[in-house]
Inverse folding.
């Protein structure tokens, strides 16, 4: 087995902290495609001090494919726990412990690295994916109310998704402090991510007339306007969702 790549991070976690990403994973076409084969493998990389979020993720992924195998990896050997509820746990880092998974998730890991280290970490993971595999790399706040994540494949980043609780966010740009490490320092005038968040705020403000119907309905109106103004590069979900969601092409935000 290769030596673990990476370093021990804080390991902060909490029950259902990643619920917005979990719900998204259960409905995302990219995840469904990655897990379409028999007994696909999903790896939760850097699950932290407790394995709760890995176990929760596994239950959501089984809705996509009941035969999915799930392994949680932690670089800190003291955090590796015995397997339970059909989930295995092992020591590992960006080298993925020699596994070739179809799906990898790493939340609140690269946030604790320098931006200059991000691309090498991405490559370490994506180069070890099974053909057609997907890597989800993101960040969320301590209570999981605001989340941002990227999807990547063997060719690099594909999309950015923003997800937030409708009742605890005044504007879409409030998610800026939870952008992935590859973007968070680029949220300044003249950068694409700054322009996207400003446009999202503008569409949100223009949809104020929908406020009496609730923030979910208001965001559906704002998201439709945003999709039109970005020629479809920004894609709010077409179905009603519990979370306010926005997925955009990487080209719309890439530094």
């Amino acid at each position: 087995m290769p030596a673990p790549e990476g370093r021990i991070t804080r390991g902060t976690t909490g029950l259902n902290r990643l619920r917005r990403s979990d719900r998204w994973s259960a409905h995302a076409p990219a995840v469904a495609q990655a897990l379409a084969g028999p007994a696909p493998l999903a790896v939760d990389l850097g699950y932290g001090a407790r394995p709760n979020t890995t176990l929760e993720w596994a239950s959501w992924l089984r809705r996509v494919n009941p035969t999915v195998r799930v392994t949680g990896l932690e670089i800190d050997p003291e955090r590796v726990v015995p397997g339970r509820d059909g989930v295995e746990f092992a020591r590992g880092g960006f080298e993925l412990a020699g596994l070739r998974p179809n799906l990898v998730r790493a939340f609140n890991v690269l946030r604790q690295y320098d931006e200059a280290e991000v691309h090498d970490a991405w490559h370490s993971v994506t180069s070890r994916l099974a053909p057609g595999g997907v890597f989800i790399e993101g960040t969320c706040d301590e209570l999981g109310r605001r989340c941002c994540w990227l999807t990547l494949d063997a060719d690099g980043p594909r999309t950015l998704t923003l997800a937030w609780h409708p009742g605890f966010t005044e504007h879409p740009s409030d998610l800026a402090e939870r952008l992935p490490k590859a973007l968070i320092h680029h949220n300044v005038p003249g950068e694409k991510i700054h322009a996207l968040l400003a446009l999202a705020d503008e569409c949100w403000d223009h949809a104020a007339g929908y406020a009496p119907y609730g923030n979910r309905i208001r965001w559906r109106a704002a998201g439709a306007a945003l999709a039109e103004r970005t020629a479809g590069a920004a894609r709010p979900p077409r179905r009603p969702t519990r979370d306010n969601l926005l997925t955009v092409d990487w080209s719309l935000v890439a530094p």
Q: What stands out?
A: The CA atoms of residues 76 and 235 lie 38 Å apart. The radius of gyration is 18 Å. The beta strands are 41-45, 69-74, 87-91, 103-107, 134-140, 146-153, 156-164, 234-235, 244-249.
